[in-house]
Design goal:
This protein is an alpha+beta fold. It has 14 helices and 41 strands. It folds into five domains: 37 residues, no CATH class; 93 residues, Alpha-Beta Plaits; 73 residues, Alpha-Beta Plaits, CATH 3.30.70.260; 411 residues, Peptidase S8/S53 domain (Rossmann fold), CATH 3.40.50; 167 residues, Jelly Rolls (Sandwich).
Length: 892
């Protein structure tokens, strides 16, 4: 392409093996480019954001040389200091040669910033000379202190306000003043600096600071960012029945009401038969994973579990729902407890019910120790993946009635803190490391994690907890913790990936709900929102939030479930039933008057009783169960499906350690679009969603939900009916191809063949992106960007039409959206530049005359190395990926 543009006198330009970037600043250049496009020689994509820098607090327009909003500290610069933190606005994407030029000029390269920015530290004179002396640099911005402050309170601070935990990222070079200043503050407070994370010529420290000190630190030239450390807050078989459908019968998950429009008298699925066989027992027997499920270890980070694992005598205890029979092996094999000093009589016991219900939904048995069923004969205790092994870290324990410092203890080594990221680091080390630790020696390591939590303090910021989770998705050893002597600093499992499933968070400001909270904003995790369920039982006492009208349409996203962004940055990734989810009760009382236990009265008879009136926990057959609502309880449903999928991949494909990207791609490729169309006017609070196009069929009020992909349902409801089919129904690629800018790796191309032309075909591309930084805007923080496209071919190999990743509509408000990819999009193809997930869904009717499909994955930009987790600096642009084709096979 470079030679082609040179022949047309298109200059300046910057080219690599995949594309050329041309600043089209004149009509003459535009005319030449359009002439080439008209002749079919090039395809043009306008880069509208090329001269903008997307920070967490504002967007800077390099053409206008101004920010798009007013924010505190925007003019705070230190002209007396000869050094500063700068962002170079480039005319193309930085490659290794440009980064080496920055270093040669005495600048410290830090990292790329969306879209064509590059952050550097160094002398002001050197930075200005560098910017003016390079034809590929467009502008230079010196970052004011206000851009570095992430979530700091502004205005007057009440006298006597104590120091709180902050995370300060500084340039990691010897002799710079910021680290010395932090050490002095920590020493004065009787503590020491603790490393929070390290990457890309930066190191971040956790330290208690007054707000005034935090503001002062942000003004220092070698400080990259200052943020308040957030605290984590906690966020049945009926759920299983909704997401599963019938075994190996595509189209049967997420059933709608049988007839009528909204009333509850038309159930979406029948009751379990009297005396069985029961639905989930049958499903698991058909799946028949054998011992593979026992090889799956799930880490739960929550409020504890039942009575914990150890008593004061050292004897093992086991939650009754985590063993199949009274003499079976307990599936809970390891616990650790951040909230105690390990001298109390219980370890990781649950005093809030939250963690116990989560574990029950994920892995509970409908056994002789938890045998009760509701009036429809659905178990109160049966989880999605019974038989999987559970390791648990009790890192959240505060109920509404507990004092603020209830869970401020951390095991000896690092100082007291309520910092969520520090608790996460400890938990990932304890639950993944193979090293000998104070509470662990030789236990199997967790590879899947359930985090039914969110950080209301940090809000939607891409903070240290989101950074950590994006890191440990690639490598668990990105999490490190400093234990007391003789253990010292230990890290998670070396070069080991983890699949992380996280709650989207809850809000209660109906009818509109806020966006997903951190750490659910992390790019590489699976973020889960909640839907209603089918549980046609009234709620007492009167006035409870979850009433009968909120429990009768499983395809409705719950009113409290946090949603995605209006800029097509998709979160949550998936949804699952989270309303009125049943599980095992661990405590006699609850934090709110609407918490209730389930009181069995006889075979399939029960009542709901206020927790304060329930019998003691453990009384046989009485008060064993409780229902809860929230995205916290949708999350273990998805974690359970991910666990089943890993076991199935091991058994049927021989993939004993599938990457998190492959697991995520598999769940997204097989997710169920919950609405096929939308009816009513945009903005109508009574908008109806329907099963059939054009407004016919079953309809219900749906919060203006649109067909997937959508900011309410994400990619749709997690579903099993397109999983676990014969292996010939799938094509899987798991990080076996790596793009490398320096080596000029060509696009990846694969031809597949439709398997069953009577139903849709779906393709999902997922890549584990390098983490971003807190300065980045949460909706514009991709580091590496790949493009997915498919050509539909006839028997001669000629292209009939094309599809492009995430190209489902021209107008997101269009009532004609139906959840399927567009064919032959407009000439100016609009690519997705915001998500590290791309999907294509092809209608069954479009497969009739298609002989094969040519799938292409092309790197648009590789700003960093995909393995650059703790190394610095990251020089080479590389990226691997996972791809799943459902209803397509490799061979004709």
């Amino acid at each position: 392409m470079d030679a082609l543009l040179a022949a047309e006198a298109v200059t300046p330009r910057w080219c690599d093996v995949h594309r050329c970037v041309v600043p089209a600043d004149s009509e003459a250049i535009l005319s030449r480019l359009r002439s080439l496009e008209a002749r079919g020689l090039v395809r043009l994509e306008e880069l509208r954001d090329a001269r903008k820098l997307f920070f967490a607090n504002a967007v800077w327009d390099a053409d206008l040389r101004s920010f798009d909003r007013v924010f505190p500290g925007r003019t705070e610069l230190d002209p007396e200091n000869p050094n500063g933190l700068f962002c170079l606005v480039l005319k193309s994407y930085a490659g290794q040669a440009w980064i080496e030029e920055m270093e040669a000029a005495g600048l410290v390269p830090i990292d790329a910033l969306f879209d064509m920015g590059y952050l550097v530290y160094g002398g002001r004179t050197a930075a200005e000379a560098f910017a003016s002396g390079r034809p590929w640099v467009y502008r230079l911005l010196e970052l004011p202190a206000g851009l570095k402050r992430i979530g700091l309170p502004e205005g007057a601070i009440p006298p006597g306000t104590p120091p709180t935990a902050h995370v300060v990222a500084v340039v990691d070079k010897p002799g710079l003043p910021a680290k010395a200043r932090l050490e002095a503050i920590a020493t004065a407070r009787g503590t020491r600096l603790i490393e929070s994370y390290r990457a890309s010529n930066l190191v971040a420290y956790s330290v208690p600071l007054l707000t005034a000190e935090a503001r002062e630190m942000s003004r220092m030239a070698d400080v990259f960012s200052v943020s308040r450390a957030g605290e984590g807050e906690p966020a049945d078989e009926r759920s299983n029945r909704i997401v599963s459908g019938l075994y190996q019968q595509p189209g049967t998950s997420w059933p709608a009401v049988a007839s009528g429009s909204y009333p509850t008298q038309f159930p979406p699925f029948p009751d379990n038969p009297v005396g069985g066989p029961y639905h989930w027992d049958q499903y698991l027997a058909s799946l028949n994973l054998g011992t593979q499920l026992a090889n799956q270890v799930v880490g739960i980070l929550d409020t504890g579990i039942y009575d914990g694992l150890k008593t004061s005598s050292g004897a093992d205890t086991c939650p009754p729902f985590l063993r199949e029979t009274p003499t079976s092996e307990c599936r809970l094999f390891f616990t650790t407890d951040i909230t105690t000093s390990f001298t109390t009589h219980k370890e990781a016991n649950d005093n809030s019910n939250h963690g116990t219900v989560v574990a029950s939904l994920l892995a509970g048995y409908a056994s002789s120790e938890s045998p009760h069923r509701d009036a429809g004969r659905f178990s109160f205790a049966q989880g999605v993946a019974p038989g999987s092994r559970i390791a648990l870290s009790r890192m959240l324990a505060r109920c509404q009635s507990d004092p603020p410092n209830y869970y401020s203890y951390l095991p000896d080594g690092e100082p007291l803190t309520e910092e969520l990221t520090k608790s996460l680091r400890y938990s990932y080390v304890e639950l993944t490391s193979t090293a000998t630790l104070p509470e662990r020696s030789g236990n199997p390591a967790a590879r899947v994690f359930n985090l039914s939590l969110s950080d209301n303090d940090a809000g939607r910021d891409y903070d240290t907890s989101a950074i950590l989770l994006d890191q440990v998705t690639r490598r668990a050893d990105a999490a490190c913790f400093e234990f007391q002597t003789p253990y010292g600093r230990k890290c998670g499992a070396t070069m080991t990936a983890t699949t992380n499933v996280i709650a989207a968070g809850n809000c209660f400001d109906e009818p509109t709900c806020g966006v997903v909270l951190t750490p659910g904003v992390a790019k590489n995790v699976i973020t889960v929102g909640a839907t209603e369920t089918w549980s046609p039982f009234d709620c007492t006492p009167n006035g409870c939030y979850v009433d009968l009208g909120r429990n009768n349409v499983p395809r409705v996203v719950a009113a409290y479930s946090r949603i995605g962004y209006p800029y097509d940055r998709l979160k949550p990734d998936l949804v699952a039933p989270g309303q009125r989810a049943y599980g095992i009760r661990s405590q006699p009382t609850g934090p709110t008057p609407c918490d209730q236990c389930v009181l069995p009265l006889g075979p399939n008879e029960f009542d709901f009783v206020d927790l304060d009136s329930c019998p003691e926990v453990g009384a046989p057959g009485l008060g064993q169960y409780i229902w809860e609502s929230g995205t916290s309880f949708a999350t273990p449903i998805v974690t359970g499906v991910a666990t089943l999928s890993r076991a199935w991949l091991a058994r049927d494909f021989g993939r004993t350690d599938p990457s998190p990207a492959l697991v995520k791609a598999l769940l997204i490729a097989t997710a169920k679009n919950l609405v096929a169309s939308r009816t009513g006017l945009p903005g109508d609070p009574n908008r109806l969603c329907c099963d059939q196009p054009n407004g016919t069929g079953t309809c219900w009020p749906c919060r203006d939900m649109k067909p997937a992909p959508d900011q309410l349902q994400g990619w749709g409801g997690v579903a099993l009916d397109r999983l676990f089919l014969p292996t010939t129904n799938y094509y899987l690629l798991d990080q076996a191809y790596v793009f490398n800018d320096a080596m000029g790796t060509p696009p990846w191309v694969k031809v597949v063949y439709p398997n069953d032309r009577s139903r849709q075909l779906s393709v999902a591309l997922v890549w584990t992106d390098k983490f971003s930084h807190m300065l980045s805007g949460v909706w514009q923080n991709l580091m590496n960007d790949l493009d997915l496209s498919i050509e539909a071919l006839d028997v001669s190999g000629a292209t009939l039409w094309s599809y492009y990743g995430n190209r489902y509509y021209d107008d997101r408000e269009s009532p004609s959206r139906d959840g399927f990819s567009l064919t032959i999009p407009p000439a100016a193809v609009v690519y997705d530049r915001k998500n590290n997930v791309e999907r294509i869904d092809i209608r069954a009717s479009e497969l009739t005359n298609v002989a094969s499909l040519r799938i292409t994955v092309t790197p648009f930009v590789l700003r960093a190395g995909h393995l650059c987790i703790v190394e610095s600096p990251c020089r080479t642009g590389t990226q691997d990926f996972a791809l799943v084709v459902e209803n397509g096979r490799e061979n004709p």
